[in-house]
Amino acid sequence: MFDVDPEWIISGPTLNPQKHMLPQNWEAYDRIELQVNEACEAARIILNRKQTRDLVRIIFEDGAEDDLESGRFLRTLRIISQER
């Protein structure tokens, strides 16, 4: 009715509303999750289930899948792992 994401109505103004709700592309989500898990394994970083889910969701919602495919994400994880 208001052409916004119902989660925005519930969560309030801190969440950016998504207009024109479209069906989710779960194949893309699954592909991103697989790539995140592979990149974490390659960088020797262990994330718990919630951390992985949150990270995948951010990448999925931001449309940042190109960062995974270009290798930027893996390079970022390697930098983080070296700082530990």
Describe the protein in words:
There is one protein chain. This protein has five helices and no strands. By secondary structure, it is mostly helical. The chain has one domain (24-83). Helix 2 packs across helix 5. The longest helix is centred in the middle third of the chain and has 17 residues, at 26-42. The chain is elongated. The N and C termini lie far apart (48 Å).
Helical proportion? 55-70%
Q: Uncertain segments of ≥5 residues (pLDDT<50)?
A: none
Count of alpha/pi helices: 5
The best one-word shape is: elongated
Q: Mean pLDDT across all residues, rounded?
A: 80
> What is the total domain count?
1
The largest pleated sheet is described as: none
Strand composition percent: under 5%
Number of strands: 0
Radius of gyration, rounded?
15 Å
Q: What is the terminal separation in angstroms?
A: 48 Å
Main structural class:
mainly alpha
Write the element-wise H/E pattern from the N-terminal end onward. Answer: HHHHH
What is the element layout, followed by pairings?
Layout: H1 6-11, H2 26-42, H3 49-62, H4 65-70, H5 72-83
Short précis:
The chain has 84 residues and is mostly helical.
Can you give keywords for this protein?
single chain; 84 residues; mainly alpha; 5 helices; 65% helix; elongated
